[in-house]
Amino acid sequence: MAINKSSSPMAIKQLKRSDLVAQEIKRMITEKNLSPGDRLPRESDLQAQFEVSKGTIREALKSLEVQGLVTISTGPSGGGTIVEVPLDRTLQFMQNYLFFKEVTIDDIYAVRLMLEPELAAGAVPHLTDADFEALEHSIVCCDPSSSHEDLLMQRREDVNFHDILAGANPNPFLRFTCELINEMIRQLIVFGNRTPKTEHRRFGEENANYHRDILDAARERDAERVRELMQQHMQDATRAVKRMKGRIQGKLILDADTLRSPRRV
């Protein structure tokens, strides 16, 4: 099968042949309903199917590997294997885009205020006993009155509470968006050096109290109450971060080794 050139002439001129082949391979994955773990046809078969050179096929596969869609192995039985795109890879692409944008603390928390209440409410019917246990553990870790972690780790543990709720929400797009914001908060937001420890402690205690109330309402499967509490929590968190002179550190981009997938303990 030759490369599909049904796109506009201008689009074709802007794409290399290997990019067109990569698009066709993705189309083939969709049409054949292939899943992570399934193998792509051998290079020689792809070469014949798309009527291109071996170099073009390899360049197309390498492009898909960079995108996180396939892994490539060498040898007689080598080739491409479909994989699920890792969240950290997607986060990295998103932050590369945001690198050139003027994103502020206000921007981040404005979006949190809109999304987190719906995320939490939507997670309520799907929370398991393991989730409730993980939420309880997170509260202990982020509460200054019970945690032995330093203040920075406590603030990061605050965010993990939200990651656990995100993991239980069945809406993948909403879940991903909130996980992206959480990772940005975890890695990129810093506070003024002169922010007193008492302010950090006050912030941690307020967060822990909200988290306990949210957990109690979630155990009762009261989604509306969870939504209301999360909205109040986000409003108070916004004020607290400003009070503590929170800011985004100099670069809005994460290195691969600093990213981690949000965990569901």
At a glance:
The protein is mostly helical and 265 residues long.
Write the layout of secondary structure elements.
Elements: H1 9-14, H2 17-31, H3 43-50, H4 54-66, E1 70-73, E2 79-82, H5 87-98, H6 105-123, H7 129-142, H8 151-168, H9 172-188, E3 189-190, H10 197-219, H11 223-243, E4 247-248
Antiparallel strand pairs: 1-2, 3-4
Helix pairs in contact: 2-4, 3-4, 6-8, 6-9, 6-11, 7-8, 7-10, 8-9, 8-10, 10-11
Number of strands: 4
Percentage of β-strand residues? under 5%
Distance between the amino and carboxyl termini: 47 Å
Main beta sheet strand tally, sense and closure: 2 strands, antiparallel
Count the helices. How many?
A: 11
Shape: elongated
Instruction: Detail the poorly predicted runs.
Output: 7-13, 252-265
* Overall average residue pLDDT: 82
In N-to-C order, the SSE pattern is HHHHEEHHHHHEHHE
Main-sheet strand order equals 1-2
Rg over CA atoms: 23 Å
> Structural class of the helix and strand makeup?
mainly alpha
Q: Helix content range of the residues, please?
A: 55-70%
Question: Could you walk me through the main structural features you see in this protein, from its secondary elements to its overall organization?
Answer:
The protein is mostly helical and 265 residues long. 63% of the residues lie in helices and 5% in strands. It contains eleven helices and four strands. It has a two-stranded antiparallel sheet. The protein has a two-stranded antiparallel sheet with strand order 3-4. A hairpin with a 5-residue loop joins strand 1 (70-73) and strand 2 (79-82). Helix 6 (105-123) packs across helix 9 (172-188) and helix 8 runs antiparallel to helix 9. Residues 7-13 and 252-265 have low confidence and may be disordered.
